[in-house]
Specification:
Blueprint lengths: L2 H21 L4 H7 L5 H15 L3 H7 L4 H11 L3 H6 L2 H13 L6 H9 L2
Helix pairs in contact: 4-5
């Protein structure tokens, strides 16, 4: 391969690499959003899984599946569901929720989070 062709191939690789990096979301939240983890369908899928895993009555789940914020927050408070995981698909939120469930502590409510961050 000639030096000119090698140079052209390297330039093409560099352009492609820059293009891929330019399109990549910068934060984890942006990546989740770009991958579609925050849509109503995904929230409903997580609710279905949770209902089956925790044996939650179907009438409570049906209300939360309407994906209205007030109903979803009420469901999360009632059953100790982490809102970061439920609404955004944050896996660290799922880990916290499962750990707290095993330890017998409820997941933090929006009021307790507001109080905690208000002290900072």
């Amino acid at each position: 391969m000639s030096a000119r062709k090698k140079e052209q191939a390297n330039a093409k690789r560099a352009r492609t690499r820059k293009h891929i990096l330019a399109r990549r979301p910068e934060t984890p939240r942006q990546r989740l959003d770009a991958e579609g983890a925050m849509g109503n369908d995904q929230v409903r899928r997580r609710l279905q899984w949770l209902a089956q895993e925790w044996n939650i009555p179907t009438n409570d789940v049906a209300e939360a599946m309407k994906c209205r914020v007030d109903l979803t927050v009420d469901f999360a408070e009632k059953y100790g569901v982490n809102l970061d995981w439920l609404l955004g698909g944050d896996l660290k939120g799922l880990q916290r929720m499962m750990r707290e469930r095993r330890m017998g502590k409820p997941a933090p409510t929006p009021e307790s989070l507001k109080e905690k961050f208000g002290r900072l």
